[in-house]
Structures are given as C-alpha cells and as structure tokens.
C-alpha cells in the first residue's frame, strides 16, 4: 500500500463577530468543524472549498485569501490530513438546500463559544484556523496554482 495524505479544504467564514461552523455526525460522536471536506478528482482547491461550504451549510461563499496549509496526523495513526484553509465571504444563502449526509446543521459561534466547546472539535485544526484568522494570518490566492 502506498501512503498518501488526505487532501482537504476548509472555509473559514467570519461575519459580525461569529464564525460559520457545522455540527456533524462522526465515528467519535457529534463534532464541530469548519465547512470542510476532501478534494475531488479534477477539482481545484478553490472550487472544492466553495462546493463544500455550499453542501454543508447552504451558504454560497467566495474565497478571498489562503489562511494556511495544515498537516495533521490523526492520533490513531491511520490518516494524515493536509488541509488547505481559505478565508471566505458569504455571498448568499440557500435555505431550501438539503445538506450533506451526516451534517446536522450550520451554526455561527464566537471565538469564546468555540473555545468553550474545544472538546467537541473534529480536530485541533478547527480552533487553530480561527486563531490564525483572528491573528491576521492571510496569504494571497495567487499562491494557489491550478492547471487543467
């Protein structure tokens, strides 16, 4: 078996002092995460981020900057995630859209509320991404190159 990391994307969305998160069913219970998911074959990182946010929250978002690239090996040792996190703005909301299987719903939390629920985070990347955003971390989207 050839080892390879699981490439994922995440949308970090901030509005009026709150961050967009999803509550989702996982193999370890109900967890909080940014709208996030796996890169699909033939898809650009930016397109994956937009798609995942829509599928998991009903929000149409637009990435405005790269927040960072995060490598996290799960403690179980079976998977290493390579997460590309993007700062995104909400463009519109579709309240009639069905959300992805396993997603309970979207919620908006302040940094304090997120910190208070650290035990419910899907991974340590959830809080790290928000802290990086709050600390002003941001890189131009031009760092990402996609070739068809």
UniProtKB/TrEMBL annotation:
It is an enzyme of class 3 (hydrolase). It comes from the Bacteria. Its EC number is 3.6.1.-. The keyword Transcription regulation does not apply. Keywords: Hydrolase, Magnesium. SUPFAM superfamilies: Nudix. Coiled coil: none annotated. Residues 2-131 form the Nudix hydrolase domain. Its cofactor is Mg(2+). Pfam families: NUDIX. One of its GO terms (molecular function) is hydrolase activity. Belongs to the Nudix hydrolase family. NudJ subfamily. Monomer. This is Phosphatase NudJ. It comes from Viridibacterium curvum. The lineage of its organism: Bacteria, Pseudomonadati, Pseudomonadota, Betaproteobacteria, Rhodocyclales.
